Amino acid sequence: MKRMARGFTLFELMFTFVIIFVVIIGLGWYVVGRAVFCGNQWFFDSAAIQAVQVDHPEYVKVVKAERNVYDLSRVLVETKDGERKTFCIDGDVFVNLDVSDPDGIDCKDL
Question: What is the pTM for the complete model shown?
Answer without folding.
Answer: 0.53
